[in-house]
Design a protein that fits this description.
heterodimer; A: 365 residues; mainly alpha; MetI-like fold; two-stranded antiparallel ribbon; 73% helix; globular; B: 343 residues; 17 helices; 75% helix
Chain lengths: 365, 343
């Protein structure tokens, strides 16, 4: 008996950890490896099962060069002068960053290699953006997803911070606002999508009289590509601003009070206190928060699927929805390829973000 | 008393009257933005089709005579079609949340108390052998043979070559590996999972959804709970260990009760994810195990946008989570904060 208990005791470390490791291995890692294989293959459904044939990079080639290019990358056209200006600014910025690293004392060939890769990918991304967002271009699912993620998260963070800053004031009824502002986060995105479909309906929705008064009654903004994308983003902002708000509020409430009091005594204005004391205090949490939301935002699928059905055309399709639509046409390999590109993009963004954050910390110290 | 004055000290800004007006205007505007869609859902659920189709009406009893016809239709006429997905959502949500909480809490406790030193060489070997097995299966070898053969190769090599690579990873690497699974978009793994469940005959069952949700939620649990366990003092556990309590006993009767707030926040978080999940359910279920988000989404396809029924469905779906969120609001902020600071 004693032997058994001591044996169990020695196994405790393994017994606590292994179930989780196994679940993740079997339902994340192995499927991921199989997915990679599927993205390099063509799956055909035949009587009583399916047949897999290896096709190399054909699925990816189709997305970047072939029949799916317009859907995935978009329609390219010459950017407007403003587009060229933005692209030029991005290139100059990236080149300066790289040049500064070469002159840096911590220079290493390995570091240069990874920075070079980052700069090339970012530059290619900027090139894609200015060419598909130009007057005669049309953004594909990749560009649309990037817009959802970066524009959406930026708005969510700004709004969340503003509301949190207002809510730490001595206002009667603060607790009411805190609870109310939390609610959208709990609501299923499918429900939000339908609710916003009702709200944006121009003839039966609650704002119909306003649209009518403004003379918009005949055009539905869900039929206009940018209107539809805006509708999706508004839904996303509505849902996820609370997440930013609630964490930022908790951080603001736990910041040390003494520096602020000292600053007030020294006659600092509210804006100075905000810039010099509050923002640096919440910077570490903010960066983590933004990173989490960036990662989660890339998974967006329910809102565009239900709110606009990906349309008009494919204007609001996100990458996840693109993969699902491709899966529905039984093109399993193509679907896996889209999913894998999504994974690569998220990983790239997350890695760059983590490295930027870490450097910022080192500089701050 | 001490707590009260501390709280007051935490928010030092007493705004000027003008600032107060502006603050209330902005906060009031956002309250409207948050609450109006919910109000519109509630009102629409009481409308007759004619009230919706003839343009908007806003106030029940004033603008129009409310009717419970939509509620009656969903609960009486469509009784089973509503109840079945509802029960599915409840069962799948609760079971998967509890399971992932148990597994994830155990793992994150272990990661904050024990030392693990997995060897890099062994891990690389393992990955190599898995790849070998997959290639073998793809080439047409029967899967039983492929798995057994690659397992044998793995054990053989791990015992011989694997021991030469002395570099090993630590607890932080394991934790990072687990948490980084959150980066994984579900759509990148769902097709193999679909095929797996199809082979096992588990498609369109609750078991399929529960296991998948456990896997997607474990990273969140590990992420939030690991930091929570690190804030719990070690002394109590050491005392219990001296008194002869086993590791399992310590975990169950000391650590778990001490970390209730963190567990509650994490549970709520994970439950909301499972409750609202759409994509995986879309792939893995069709009729029997369908969950509520799918039922709601399917409304449009089958009957066109019948807002009144849809509103009822959405309302009964969001009321439980909203009630929980209001009740547990304090836990949520704290639970999230611990994770975000250490992140």
């Amino acid at each position: 008996m004693n032997k058994l208990t001591s044996r169990l005791e020695r196994l405790a470390g393994a017994a606590f950890l292994w179930p989780t490791v196994l679940v993740i291995l079997f339902l994340s890692i192995f499927p991921l490896i199989i997915s990679l294989y599927m993205s390099l293959a063509r799956l055909q459904f035949v009587r009583g099962g399916f047949k897999i044939s290896f096709v190399g990079l054909a699925n990816y080639r189709k997305l970047f060069l072939g029949s799916e290019k317009e859907h995935f990358l978009g329609v390219f056209s010459n950017p407007s002068p403003l587009g060229w200006l933005i692209f030029g600014a991005v290139v100059v910025g990236l080149a300066t960053a790289l040049w500064r690293y070469v002159r840096d004392e911590n220079f290493s060939p390995q570091g240069l290699f990874w920075r070079g890769v980052t700069v090339i990918i970012s530059g290619a991304g900027a090139w894609l953006l200015v060419h598909t967002l130009s007057p005669h271009g049309r953004p594909g699912t990749l560009v649309v997803t990037l817009i959802y993620v970066f524009v959406g998260v930026a708005i969510q963070y700004t709004l969340g911070l503003l509301l949190a800053l207002l809510c730490i004031q001595q206002l009667p009824g603060r607790r009411f606002f805190r609870v109310v502002f939390l609610l959208p986060m709990m609501i299923t995105p499918v429900g939000i999508a339908y609710t916003f479909r009702m709200l944006t309906d121009l003839t039966k929705g609650p704002f119909a009289p306003i649209w009518l008064g403004l003379g918009f009654a005949e055009v539905s903004w869900v039929n206009d590509p940018w209107g539809a994308r805006a509708a999706v983003m508004i839904g996303d902002v509505w849902q996820w601003t609370p997440f930013m708000f609630i964490v930022l509020l908790a951080v603001l409430e736990s910041q040390p009070i003494e520096p602020i009091e000292a600053a007030v005594v020294d006659g600092a204005t509210r804006l100075q206190i905000l810039r010099e004391i509050t923002l640096p205090t919440i910077l570490p949490v903010s960066t983590t928060l933004v990173l989490i939301r960036l990662i989660e935002a890339f998974k967006i699928v329910d809102l565009p699927n239900v709110l606009t059905n990906g349309g008009p055309g494919t204007a609001t399709e996100s990458l996840t929805l693109h993969a699902f639509m491709t899966w529905r046409t039984l093109d399993v390999g193509g679907s896996a390829a889209v999913a894998y590109i999504l994974l690569l993009v998220v990983t790239f963004v997350a890695l760059v973000a983590v490295n930027l954050i870490r450097r910022r910390f080192v500089e701050a110290l | 008393m001490g707590k009260r004055s501390r709280r007051a000290a935490l928010s030092p800004f007493t705004p000027s009257p003008a600032g107060m007006v502006v603050s209330y205007l902005i906060l009031g505007f956002w309250t409207f933005v948050v609450l109006f869609p919910l109000y519109w859902l509630a009102v629409t659920s009481l409308k007759l089709p004619i009230h919706v189709n003839d343009g908007p009406v806003y106030l029940p009893f004033v603008d129009f005579q409310p009717s419970l016809h939509a509620w009656r239709y969903i609960f009486v006429d469509l009784r089973n079609d509503t109840l079945r997905p509802y029960m599915n959502t409840v069962v799948v949500g609760l079971t998967s949340s509890i399971l992932s909480l148990i597994l994830g809490a155990a793992a994150s406790y272990a990661l904050s108390r024990f030392q693990y030193r997995p060897r890099v060489g062994t891990i690389l070997l393992f990955i190599g052998c898995v790849a070998l097995a997959i290639v073998a299966i793809a080439l047409g070898v029967a899967w039983q043979i492929a798995v057994i053969a690659s397992l044998a190769i793995f054990i053989l090599l791990a015992q011989t070559i694997g021991r030469r690579f002395q570099r090993s990873l630590g607890n932080n690497d394991i934790a990072f590996w687990m948490i980084s699974q959150r980066i994984l978009p579900p759509v990148a793994v769902v097709i193999p999972i679909y095929v797996l469940y199809q082979r096992l005959g588990l498609l369109d069952t609750r078991v399929a959804l529960i296991t998948t949700y456990v896997a997607t939620n474990l990273p969140i649990v590990v992420w939030l709970m690991r930091d929570y366990f690190q804030t719990i003092p070690l002394e109590l556990e050491e005392c219990a260990a001296i008194d002869g309590a086993s590791r399992y006993r310590i975990f169950w009767s000391i650590v778990i009760p001490l970390s209730t707030p963190g567990l509650v926040a994490t549970f709520l978080f994970v439950l909301v994810f499972a409750w609202n999940e759409y994509l995986l359910a879309l792939f893995l279920t069709s009729a029997k195990a369908q969950t509520l988000p799918l039922t709601v989404a399917a409304q449009n396809a089958t009957r066109g946008p019948q807002w009144w029924y849809m509103s009822v469905l959405i309302l009964i779906m969001i009321v439980p989570v909203i009630a929980m969120a209001i009740a547990l609001e304090r836990y949520i902020a704290r639970g999230l904060l611990v994770g975000a600071i250490k992140g």
